[in-house]
Write a structure and sequence with these properties.
The protein is mainly α. It contains 24 helices and no strands. The protein has helices at about 15-25, 30-105, 110-140, 145-160, 165-190, 195-205, 210-235, 240-270, 280-310, 315-335, 345-380, 385-415, 430-460, 470-495, 510-545, 560-575, 595-605, 605-610, 610-615, 625-635, 650-670, 675-695, 700-715, 725-735. About 30% of the residues are buried.
């Protein structure tokens, strides 16, 4: 059943209350009937309230509409009165117009004839006074008005020129304008004309039928002279800062150049001249292109010279602000001079300035590094003692390392000004500019780090007379750069300049520089070991060469040189320990062997090497067995490399020095001949060294082996090879 025809729906037009009530009583319980009654009562009250609201709102609208209608009725009454008055006045005007038209109808044609005659008389009067007026305008130098009046009169002359009365006037005007034309030519060729005056005179000459091709060439020639004078004037402005210099060039030279170019283009390229050749416009455009590029090249060359003279002395930010203004002006000129090709731009100057500033900063970095090295050398020379020097070495290294890093960071920050986003140029957008940015990394940073490596490596040269502690400082500094500094700087430059060095095939990776730094550090440390070893060797060599070993007295004490060697090694260890750890490899021992083992090594010389006691004590030239036994022992002993690279640890460094000293002592002993007491003195000295050198090294066996070789060589070179009793040797060494 359709809801609209449902008799049980209260909202339907077919609602039947009786049937609805009958159905309700039949189907619902008492509670449901009472609920339905309450709902009906509530809906009735709601509808009643809504009806009252609608009636109130519509009543207010009705009252408002009544007021509006009453007001409109009053307004229409006033408007009706005004319209009636307007109609009356319009009728009066129409009547007067008809009367005037009727009165003037007969004289209208006469008035037209009089007006034409008046106009003709005015033209005749203009022609009759034209020669005098032209002379007056020329005297007042109002050439533009004179040319305009003459060209206006030419139309009249073309119409009435055959009349005798006008012929004389025309000849006078032509003569006057011929003089004006000659004067304009002279003014056009006069030096010192501005671009504005050249343009104005050129336009006047064109209006006076000057030959177009000659005028075009003459205009460029005269404008070129004027622009050359401005270039010469700008060359003398050396006392001005870069910003003022560029502003003068923009306001003077470039504005005049733009005016000449646009005027020439409008006069000779944009217009077609029938009396000229067909290729005149094309030739004029080519000449204008050549003229424009020549003058821009001259000006930009002057700017580049000024930039090169200011690099390293002036404010870089001021210079770039000036170049930014110049770049904006040239971009505007390109937009104005459409159809012309400006080949050179300011980006080349800016990129060249960046290269030059990189070179200047590179030189400053090298000078600063040289000064820092000089300060380090001076500090080392002025140190009172090696112990004091060892305390200050860490400060020297820290100052040198930090000063280098901070200086490089400052330079990288300074050069970042070229990549500011508020500039109108973007050098990274150009291929040359991108190479320049990469050059900051390669030539400035990497080049300087390699310069550091090269200079420091020069101190490791054997011909260099460098203080030992300087080599130690430089070696440690290179090691610090290899471990931290190179990575810090490479990461900084890559982040600042957005360089992807990891994936580049042309850029230097930081591992290459780290390897070079470590190699330099190794060379310096090896040079330090060689130098200190040489100093120890000289002491030992002189002590052996200057002594008469054949006429020695029985040893009663350790020689002073051995004590001096031990003291020197102690000082060296103190200095090295301030920079390097005792051990660098986990295989090294950290504690020395016991005191008893040290004392018994040479005391038990007979037990460990019985051939020394049994053979060397009874040695005669005819008995060579012991020599063969000793040689066989050396053959199967491990080879000792003396001049090898040391590790970056205290024990390795000191051990390298000791090996050089003991090797020198061994070679000196092999070249001398000893008496019995001379051999015993060597025995005492060797035992003293064995007792004191253990604390400097990580491998006592190596020291013992070299001392064994020294004593064995002394036995070989002894005329009466009798060793001192071990107890006596120990007593002498302990007493020392």
């Amino acid at each position: 059943m359709d809801e609209k025809d449902n008799p049980f729906d209260m909202d339907s037009s077919s609602f039947d209350s009786d049937r609805y009530l009958e159905k309700l009583l039949k189907d619902c319980s008492l509670k449901q009937i009472m609920d339905t009654e309450a709902a009906v009562v509530k809906d009735t009250q709601t509808l009643h309230s809504d009806m009252q609201t609608l009636v109130y709102e519509n009543y207010n609208k009705f009252i408002s509409a009544t007021d509006t209608i009453r007001k409109m009725k009053d307004d229409f009454k006033q408007m009706e009165t005004d319209v009636n008055l307007l109609m009356t006045k319009m009728q009066s005007i129409t009547t007067f117009s008809e009367q005037i038209t009727g009165t003037l109808q007969g004289t209208r044609s006469q008035l037209c004839r009089l007006s034409e005659k008046h106009s003709l008389l005015k033209r005749l009067q203009f022609l009759s006074t034209l020669p005098a007026k032209l002379k007056s305008l020329i005297e007042e130098q109002n050439y533009a008005q004179a040319v305009q009046d003459y060209l206006h009169a030419q139309k009249v002359f073309a119409q009435y020129g055959r009349q005798p009365s006008f012929d004389g006037i025309q000849r006078d005007c032509d003569a006057i304008m011929a003089e004006l034309k000659e004067r304009l030519r002279q003014d056009f060729q006069r030096a010192g004309n501005t671009a504005q005056s050249l343009t104005e005179i050129g336009e006047l000459l064109l209006q006076l039928d000057e030959k177009t091709s000659d005028l075009a060439s003459e205009m460029l020639r005269c404008a070129g002279k004027r622009l050359h004078e401005q270039i010469a004037m700008l060359q003398d402005q050396t006392e001005r800062d870069m910003l003022e210099f560029v502003d003068m060039g923009i306001e003077g030279f470039l504005n005049d150049l733009a005016l000449v170019v646009t005027s020439y283009f409008d006069m000779f390229v944009a217009k077609h001249y029938e009396h000229e050749r067909d290729d005149f416009q094309e030739n004029a455009l080519n000449e204008l292109n050549i003229f424009l590029n020549q003058n821009i090249d001259n000006y930009l060359s002057l700017v580049q010279d000024r930039v090169e003279s200011d690099i390293g002395y002036g404010d870089t930010q001021v210079m770039l602000r000036a170049l930014d203004r110049l770049h904006r002006r040239l971009q505007a000129m390109r937009n104005i001079c459409r159809g012309l090709q400006v080949q050179r731009n300011t980006l080349d100057i800016i990129i060249a300035a960046a290269h030059q500033l990189c070179d200047a900063h590179g030189k400053n970095l090298r000078d600063h590094f040289a000064d820092s090295l000089s300060a380090v050398r001076l500090s080392l020379v002025s140190a009172k003692s090696d112990v004091a020097t060892g305390v200050n070495l860490n400060d020297l290294i820290s100052n040198l390392y930090v000063a280098m890093l901070e200086k490089i960071k400052g330079v990288l920050q300074d050069l970042l000004i070229f990549l500011r986003t508020d500039w109108s140029f973007n050098i990274k957008a150009e291929h040359k500019g991108a190479l320049c940015v990469e050059g900051i990394r390669e030539h400035l940073l990497i080049g300087f780090l390699r310069h550091i490596s090269k200079i420091m490596c020069g101190f490791a040269d054997a011909s260099s007379s460098s203080p030992p502690n300087l080599l130690l400082v430089l070696s440690k500094t290179c090691l610090e750069l290899e471990q931290q500094g190179v990575h810090i700087l490479a990461t900084l430059v890559d982040d600042l300049y957005e360089i992807d060095s990891e994936n580049s095939a042309t850029l230097t990776h930081e591992t290459e520089i780290c390897a070079e730094m470590r190699e330099t550090a190794q060379s310096l440390l090896d040079a330090y070991v060689r130098l200190q070893g040489t100093n120890i060797s000289q002491m030992l060599r002189k002590s052996v060469e200057t002594r008469d070993w054949l006429n020695c007295l029985e040893p009663r004490s350790v020689r002073a040189v051995m004590k001096r060697v031990v003291e020197e090694l102690g000082s060296i260890e103190t200095v090295v320990a301030s920079l390097y750890d005792s051990t660098g490899n986990p295989g090294f021992r950290t504690t020395a062997s016991s005191d008893s083992s040290r004392k018994t090594y040479f005391s038990n010389f007979n037990a460990t090497k019985p051939q020394y006691r049994s053979n060397w004590s009874n040695y005669t030239p005819s008995q060579l067995e012991s020599s063969y036994v000793s040689n066989i022992h050396r053959l199967f002993s491990e080879r000792v490399d003396i001049f090898t690279s040391v590790e970056f640890t205290k024990t390795s460094i000191v051990m390298g020095i000791i090996k050089i000293g003991l090797k020198t002592l061994l070679e000196c002993v092999r070249l001398r001949t000893f008496s019995k007491f001379g051999l015993q003195q060597i025995q005492v000295d060797a035992h003293y060294l064995q007792m004191n050198l253990w604390r400097f090294v990580s491998d006592e066996n190596l020291v013992n082996f070299l001392l064994d070789e020294i004593l064995g060589s002394a036995v070989h070179r002894c005329l009466e090879s009798v060793l001192m009793e071990p107890n006596a040797v120990e007593i002498i060494c302990e007493r020392a």
